[in-house]
Predict the structure.
Amino acid sequence: MDMYGMCGKLVSQPGQRDKFIGILLSAARVVGQLPGCRLYVVNKDLADEVSIWVMEIWDDKNAHDVSLKNEQVRSLIAEAMPLMAGAPEGASLSVVGGHGI
Amino acid sequence: MDMYGMCGKLVSQPGQRDKFIGILLSAARVVGQLPGCRLYVVNKDLADEVSIWVMEIWDDKNAHDVSLKNEQVRSLIAEAMPLMAGAPEGASLSVVGGHGI
């Protein structure tokens, strides 16, 4: 089975991006220890002051889905929710290959 | 300086995604040998039959820009152009951190 990937775009409330990113970096530390997490990278969009992109690669979709049930992950999601301006967007992906994974 | 990232979405002409992906995997082999390329991953969008996402992480924006002047990369871009249905979309990013890089 191909690996599972996500490119997700999150938009923060004005002035809240750095705080939001701090929570996502905490999430990265948690999910990085979970089975099947190969990549979880947090990025600022250079085009504005509110957008954040997260790149994720997992062994498979199940490993990703299981991570969302982790207590620490759920707590961090709850902490981040009030900082979000709208629903997350993004794509669910089948990882074909490339360099660096 | 933060690392430089890109999340790019490319849409292929109908029926041409696999051929397009083959070219991008060739590009990954080339850029993976260039200075500063940390990640270049090619993905199929699970939502349709034509969309492709490329995740890139470079030491800095200059390393990425230099890669576009590489002869092999330019040749592969020229090969891919007729397979594209419209201009690429995506985001230029400042990589903050996370797991797996």
Summary: DSSP finds three helices and four strands in chain B. The CA atoms of residues 12 and 66 of chain B lie 25 Å apart.
